[in-house]
Amino acid sequence: QVQLVESGGGSVPPGGSLRLSCVASGSIYNIKDMGWYRQAPGKERELVALSTSAGRNYAESVKGRFTISRDNAKKTVYLQMNSLKPEDTAVYYCNGRFTFYSGSLINAWGQGTLVTVSS
Hints:
Number of strands: 11
Shape: elongated
Order of helices and strands: EEEEEEEEEEE
Low-confidence stretches: none
Number of helices: 0
Strand content: over 45%
Distance between the termini: 40 Å
């Protein structure tokens, strides 16, 4: 089994910054990809940023403002969020695909961390 634990959410004014962290635990052999999703009230969950072996992908709405990074040794993915806007308000979820030593592929989700951007 694998667990993902997010942290770093909070309430900030427009233009502020936050850095989200997500730490994976378990007998992980390899990280296939890790990413961040978010879900705002009344909206569907959407992909915000994804880190894969091929590179990094971002939702159009966050390009130039958010940066995803990964520390494989620490099994941690980060999301640096700058120039935050009210429309960024959402619960942010960490997601990852991992292989165990057994060869099994696991898709795991964190519990979510709330980001609120308001004056």
